[in-house]
Design goal:
- Helices cover 16% and strands 13% of the residues.
- It has helices spanning 9-15, 71-82, 100-103, 174-181; strands at 5-8, 43-46, 51-55, 96-98, 114-117, 123-126, 135-136.
- The chain contains 4 helices and 7 strands; from the N terminus they run βαββαβαβββα.
- By secondary structure, it is an alpha+beta fold.
- A hairpin with a 4-residue loop joins strand 2 and strand 3 (51-55).
């Protein structure tokens, strides 16, 4: 997708009282754990192609501020408030908000509590702070003119392959297809199918 700009997620969280810093920041800089007033913070985020939001939950975090019973209500409140964010031209951004426990069969490691796809991936999630707006045309991780999309490309070439398009294959189909082209056996429990 084209890179239309960035949504400054931590700046938005600060402006809405979810993220509290120990002192005001007047220049754009990368956020760090040392800058955060954990005893007054409810949510913080990591940026990237989408925002990974983590809640400061009592019993899970060292200085947790949110009771476990408050988490679902807070998720819905933030999701609702994100619906009122506008771009620099005054158009509402259509953020897609997802919850790992609802979209993945299994969550490994430390999954975020909420994932925000800014304007359905038309914008990138910017985690730096000190911005004078929630919207920026800069990327805080270096030059980049594009953003990820939900659909990808799988291009395969080689002897014996005819030129054709195969639409709507699953990412699970890539491995069995490659193994098959290499004349390697497919494991019994492999997901996906050979597509060419």
């Amino acid at each position: 997708k084209a890179f239309k700009g960035g949504f400054c997620i931590n700046q938005w969280l600060i402006e809405n009282g979810y993220l509290v810093l120990k002192e005001e920041v007047n220049m754009v800089k990368k956020i760090s754990a040392e800058m955060i007033d954990w005893k007054r913070t409810k949510v913080w985020a990591e940026g990237g192609y989408y925002a990974r939001c983590f809640f400061n939950i009592k019993g899970r975090e060292i200085s947790g501020t949110i009771d476990m019973g408050e988490v679902e209500r807070l998720k819905e409140k933030i999701k609702s408030e994100l619906g009122f964010v506008k771009d620099e031209k005054g158009f509402f951004l259509k953020h897609k908000v997802l919850f790992p426990e609802k979209i993945y069969v299994e969550c490994n490691g430390i999954p975020p509590d909420m994932m925000i796809y800014p304007d359905d991936l038309n914008y990138r999630a910017i985690s730096s702070i000190g911005h004078d707006s929630f919207i920026t045309n800069q990327n805080d991780s270096g030059p980049d003119g594009a953003n990820h999309d939900y659909e990808g490309l799988f291009i395969l070439t080689g002897k014996g392959l005819e030129h054709k398009k195969v639409k709507q294959i699953s990412i699970y189909d890539v491995l069995p297809t490659i193994l098959s082209r290499m004349d390697m056996p497919l494991p019994e429990d492999i997901k996906g199918k050979v597509v060419v």
